[in-house]
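Contributing new records

If you add data, match the layout below exactly. Sequence lines come first and carry their own label; structure lines follow with theirs. Keep one chain per record. Anything else will be rejected by the validation script.
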Amino acid sequence: MIPVNTSGVYNIFTNDYDQWFEKHPNLYQSELLAVKQAVPVQGVGIEIGVGTGRSTQPLNIKYSVESSDSMAQIVKERGVKISTAVAENLPIENQSYDFVIMVNTVCFLSGIPKAFSKVLRILKPRGEFVIGLLDRHSELGIA
């Protein structure tokens, strides 16, 4: 697989990315509702590939990972603890979280097996891994 380095693109288009949520409130709320149904109510979680952190507060997530420096800055301004890193190299202690979520992130990973093994490493025993995938042919995927 060819490595995908999207952090540079997202550094350039951070504001456009963040404004998408304002321009498409119904799609954003629909995605948020779907993810919320899968996220555990109890425990400490982390979002990997958090973007600008639009889902962290509604999902009560206080920790995150993002590869884009400019997006990470917005996440920090939103009051969420952020590590600037990639999913394939998580600077996080073993068995730190009760759940991990990745929403619309898997398609940007350069090494899915490696990233998933890192997620399993940071999950506590019996922890949950929630993955949200976007169907590019759906209304949300087209927008």
